[in-house]
Recover the amino acids of this structure.
């Protein structure tokens, strides 16, 4: 995949990446089938200088039935436990499909409070746990690794788009600032224009 990208063969690189992910997904589903809980969510996070990726695995009836990821910006200076706490509040409070257990990589300060709020909301016990060893820890680490891969893929996609713009416009370097304009009118009257500016983030 990296070889294809380095040689600017981006379609082949993307296809290789998708195949690798498909193989990883099959392997993950087989591994998760060993877990004993009937209804759990497993959360992993990964960070870089720009963004945070939160990956959620959904395990129901001892099988992983799906996953979802979220990108959160401007949180790189926050500790992981702060990100986890904020995410759980935003994602699970008011969510009708609450699991019986939420597994995270480390303990959070509001663990008992949030467990109580979620339990009261759905009328049954909802636990928030951070496993320290064994099979459950492996699942949390797997979610964390998936979050890392998802975040890396996002950055690769961004590079591919910028590389294509560079090639199409005959630029010497990747663009660091892009101005876009949209001008609309009705039969030549009532002209309205808008401009959006995209800049490379400085850290």
């Amino acid at each position: 995949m990296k070889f294809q990208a380095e040689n600017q063969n981006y379609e082949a690189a993307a296809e290789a990446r998708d195949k690798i992910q498909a193989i990883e997904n099959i392997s993950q589903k087989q591994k998760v089938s060993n877990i004993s809980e009937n209804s759990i969510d497993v959360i992993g996070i990964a960070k870089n200088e720009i963004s945070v990726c939160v990956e959620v695995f959904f395990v129901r009836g001892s099988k992983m039935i799906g996953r979802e990821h979220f990108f959160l910006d401007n949180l790189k200076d926050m500790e992981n436990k702060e990100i986890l706490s904020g995410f759980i509040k935003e994602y699970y409070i008011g969510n009708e499909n609450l699991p019986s257990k939420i597994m995270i990589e480390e303990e959070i300060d509001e663990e008992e409070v949030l467990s109580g709020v979620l339990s009261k909301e759905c009328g049954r016990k909802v636990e928030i746990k951070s496993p320290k060893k064994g099979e459950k820890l492996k699942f949390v680490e797997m979610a964390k690794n998936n979050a890392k891969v998802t975040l890396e893929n996002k950055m690769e996609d961004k590079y591919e788009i910028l590389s294509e713009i560079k090639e199409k416009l005959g630029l010497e370097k990747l663009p660091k600032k892009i101005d876009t304009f949209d001008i609309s009118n009705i039969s030549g009257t009532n002209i309205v224009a808008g401009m959006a500016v995209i800049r490379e983030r400085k850290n």
